[in-house]
Amino acid sequence: MNSTIETILAHKSVRKFKDEKLSGEQIETLVKSAQAASTSSMIQAYTIIGVTDPDKKAELAAIAGNQSYVEKNGHFFVFCADLYRHEVIGEKEGAEVTDSLESTEKFMVALIDAALAAQNASVAAESMGLGICYIGGIRNDLNAVSEVLQVPDRVIPLFGLAVGVPAEDNEVKPRRPSAHVYHENTYRSDKETVRRELEEYDRTVSEYYQERTSGRRTDTWSAQMARMLEGKKRMYMKEFIEKKKYDLK
Amino acid sequence: MNSTIETILAHKSVRKFKDEKLSGEQIETLVKSAQAASTSSMIQAYTIIGVTDPDKKAELAAIAGNQSYVEKNGHFFVFCADLYRHEVIGEKEGAEVTDSLESTEKFMVALIDAALAAQNASVAAESMGLGICYIGGIRNDLNAVSEVLQVPDRVIPLFGLAVGVPAEDNEVKPRRPSAHVYHENTYRSDKETVRRELEEYDRTVSEYYQERTSGRRTDTWSAQMARMLEGKKRMYMKEFIEKKKYDLK
């Protein structure tokens, strides 16, 4: 196993950082790493916003549900799906691009592009000994985030990425068994298999929590997921996305 | 610069592979690397389908626009957004999860989750000396892909990933200047700046092609993007996504 794969397999989210800012050079390396990711037909449909202003960081932390590590970290990035400059390209080149920019296809392309870039930045950061945590919590209120960061239409802040020198050492959480995630040639959809797999992974997760809480927490993955999905979080999203002129056609 | 960042920055898509299959161990390393990526609240909303059946590979290559490297590679993966098993969890736990599964928020979560996983697999592959190419072309006809791979509702094949021993050595394509992609504290949206940046990058891209084609190709990025976006590709996508019970609420 090489050091890159060691880095990748050792990933765990870090939510407590030392009070040490990333250098300009480190930030540039992370941005350049992000940009080196594959991009659909070179569309490069994302923008990365670094947030250093303490007031803005405090506002984002509040939006994300008072997550202190949104404020306290080495650097805070927000990854945005971005087709704004492609709209400008349409004007500049006299090309009819609106239908395309507003298609579900391009919404997907922009999300995937931004996520590939972010994961490159994450792996790069971890290879430098830094810790990272994705902050999906900013999606609690993207109207507010859009105001804080002053993003125009055709730009959607997707998630934050907190980076910094770790001040805690977490354990790697057990993922679903690879054999459940990886199918060959066809999707294994028969419900009996799925239920059996769920029960197997539920036991793993439950044991993981029991060991780490001296038996106080006995949660299964299924129970966690059911609770989360019953929650109906962020049901304003469709309206927001369409207001930003994405996913309309 | 460490070797992981060197790997990341050296990325270029490979479209010609040697006739050498990945070993089972290599495939497992890539799947485990994919799974080690961050996942929103541990939702793990993706499935990876390895396609080894020659007939299925030929069908996928045809769908992707006769891309030979979809057939000829060391291994071919299809990354799918997947909330199917979360539906089974809802049944199993007696939880009302439908609104959540059909929300735009969860559509985004599943896409981002799958993309983060895929990029981990890509970086891991490249660190092993393998080449990769994302195949967005499978989205030309996801109805057909769904039949080939027999995916149920709540599963969306997003892109392929061809992996293998490179039989060609491409150059790294120039990305947008980092200073254009990276903004600080607020999004720089004034159109004069955007246009000036576009012109700068247009020159870079144009020079890149001119040098490599002895002046025959003089394309700018803006012209490429305008042409692509005028194309209105994959406008069936919204209907397909909704048919698969995503992005409805």
UniProtKB/TrEMBL annotation, chains A, B:
Pfam family, one: Nitroreductase
Any one Gene Ontology molecular-function term assigned to this protein's record: oxidoreductase activity
InterPro entries (alphabetical): Flavin_OxRdtase_Frp, Nitroreductase, Nitroreductase-like
Entry keyword set: Flavoprotein, FMN, NADP, Oxidoreductase
Keyword match Hydrolase: no
Domain Nitroreductase: 9-164
Source organism, top-level taxon: Bacteria
Annotated coiled-coil segments of the chain: none
Family: Belongs to the flavin oxidoreductase frp family.
NCBIfam families according to UniProt: PRK10765.1 (NF008033)
Name of protein: Oxygen-insensitive NADPH nitroreductase
Biological source species: Bacillus salacetis
